[in-house]
Each structure stands twice: as structure tokens, then as C-alpha cells.
Amino acid sequence: MKLPPEGARWLVSLRWWACVLLLATIWLASSGMEILAGQKILPHPLPLYAVACGMLVYNTLFRLGQRGRSAGEGSVDRNICLQITCDLLALTLLLYFSDLPRNPFLFYFAFHMIIAGMYLRGRTPYYFAALATALVGAVMILEYLHAVPSHPLQLPSDPKPPVERPLDGLYLLGLFAAFASTVWIAIYFTTSIRRYVDRAHAELRQKEKLLGIGQLVAGIAHQIANPLDGLQNCLQRIGERVRDDPHLTEYVQMMVEALERIERTAKRVQSFARPHGITLQSTDVGAAVEATLQVLGTSHEKNIRIVKDLGHVPPVQGDSYTLQEVIFNLCTNALAAMPHGGTLTVRTRALGSKDEDQMGSVAIEVADTGVGIPRVHLEKIFEPFFTTRADRGGTGLGLGLCRMLISEMGGRIEVRSVLGQGTTFTVILNPAAVRRGAIRSG
Hints:
This protein is α+β, with helices and mostly antiparallel strands and 442 residues long. The protein is 58% helix and 11% strand.
């Protein structure tokens, strides 16, 4: 889920308030404290005022630049990257001119890490974590080596008159470790949460699409079923009139049988499209695979070999008929991916402790030696209506439905593919002892 492009404008608006609060804090720590307590906390506030004015200038430029800049995704990301970079440099200067080793605002860098993790993708947020760590580390090292002048704060608890105190190397090392760990943990957790939200949003959109598709299919099936009743009544009357002609009687009987098949198909489609529950119970994976391969029968090409490798696996928590439907769909896709022949392998195995999400889970692999799936398509194959076989009747609904059904059984489906070598879909289900009862969907 991509956050709206207004994020760049939001940063500009937030920065106005930050500049106002910064100017007020500088005045309070210098002139204000001198009036109230007769002592300045900031003996030399002019560099800080200069940095604050610089922030006002570049924030104004960002504001003006937004009017003529396009709202494309790449433009927004570049704008946010530039804003965060300027903010990190400004914050580093502010801390340097206000006793960085003792400044409690040092950990304000975490706010920019959170913003980067929310709005930016890929490795970019981690680049900003590295930049913040490098800037603060450089200031600490330069001050410790006396390569740059220091700007200590004059706190009320400090001795009077002020005396120069050397920086303690162990203290700086501990402070840097705490700062760096805070920055990197903030980036890690923010990006992890964002990725989880992205996956949840994608699954929600997919289920909404499939629900709409199911309602559409049910409506179409209903429209087909109504005229079928009229056709069957008409054929029945025609059959009564042509009983004396065996050829016409045979044709009428063939039409009646065809209409009955259409009617049964329409009813199955209505039943399938109607929201229904999946009853989770102890399910024999091997029996489900055997039943699916029997239904698959000899519908494949003669130059395709089917290999069955059923390991000794425990029962899983699932629905037998739903599991057969998923395996059948994956097998038909695998057969379609081997137009020039190949090997379809259906394998079951116990993952044991290899599965980090669930101990004792069971994997069902459907592997082919077909054409493979391009890497750019791997993230899209589970989206409704996405298909690379539109010219051969593909609808793009099968894999999306498979993932939804497996998810309702508490499992997940994974895919790996190599172009020219084949594709492997892996269905992972929880053992039967993990969950009890039934889940009702729809």
C-alpha cells in the first residue's frame, strides 16, 4: 500500500512548526534563561539562529517547488529523499553547535528514520540510517580529537566559572552505540510493519475482488438456469411429438442430456460462487493428492510424465475437498506450462523444524519442468485477472483463489521459478493438532 503523495507536503507543513519551536527554544535557552536565571544555557546562540534561518530558506524553496513539480511517484520519492537529507544535515549542525554529546535532542534522528521507513521503498530507508549514523559518529570523533571547536552547554549544575572538561572516550562510545542502535531499530521495525501492512492490504484487495467476481458468476449462472427450464419443457413436448421417428427421438434425447449437463454446471457454479464455510478438520494429505490425480486422469498430453512422491506426513488441519480443488488447479496450470512435454511432480513432505512459522507443518509441492515464470511476474501471479495465457483461455482467477482458500485453512502458498527450467508451487499447512473447530468465511 503506497502512502499518498501528500506526504511531501505534510513534511513541509510540519517543518514550519519545527522551525517556530526551534527559534523559541534557542531564544529561551539563551536570552530567556538569562532574564529568568541570570545565566545562558547557550552562550553562543548565533550559529543556531543561522541554521534555523537556513531551514526556513530551504523549506520555503520546497514549498515553492511543489507548485511546479509533477505528482508522479518517482518525483514524490525524490522530493522526500531530498527533504530528509536536508533535515539530517540541519539537525547534525544544530546538535554540533549545542553540545552534541550532552544534548538530549540527539535521538530526534529517530523521527526521520520513521518517516523514511513509512514513505520510501527498497533499501533507501537504510541509506538514511547509515547517513545519520555517519554524521553523528563523525562529529563525535572530530570533537574527541579536538579537530573542530566544541560548543558546550552551560547547565545550572555545571561549575562556575565554566571549566573545559575533556570528553570521555568510553562515554562517547556508549552514547554512539545507544544512538546507532536506536536509529537502526527504528528503521527495521518501521519497514517491517510497513511490509506487513502492504501484504495485508494486498490480500484484502484480492479477497474483495474475488467476492465481487463470485457475485457476478452467481448472477450469470442464475440467468443461464432460468431459460434452461424453458428449453427443457419445450424439448419434452417436442419429444412427445416425434416418438415415431427414432432418429429425431435420439437427437432430442441428446439435446436433453446436454441441457441437463449445462444445468448441473450452472448449479455447481452457483454453489461455488455462493459464500460458504470451510470446515477445518483432520485431513489426510496423501488421500487428497491421490483423489486429485485420479480426477486429473489422462487429460494431459502423452509426452507429459506424472511423478507421485508421497512421503509419510501427519494429518493437517484443512478441508479435504478444498485441498483437492487447490491441488487440481495447480496441476492444470503446471500441465499448461509444458506445451512441449515434461514432468509433473506432486510431492508431500513434513517440514518439521524447517518451517519457522509453524513447527510440524506439511508441504505439498507441485513442480513442473515447463517454461517458468519471469521474475517480474512472480509478484503478480496471485492477482485476480492477471494471466500470461489469455490467448489460451486463461482467466487469471485460479491462483488468486488458491491462495485465498489456503489462507482460510490457516496455511500459505509459496512459489519459486526459473525461466526455461520450471516452476514449483508449495502449499504449507499446519498440523491437525494446532487448531480445532471450523472457520466460516463470507
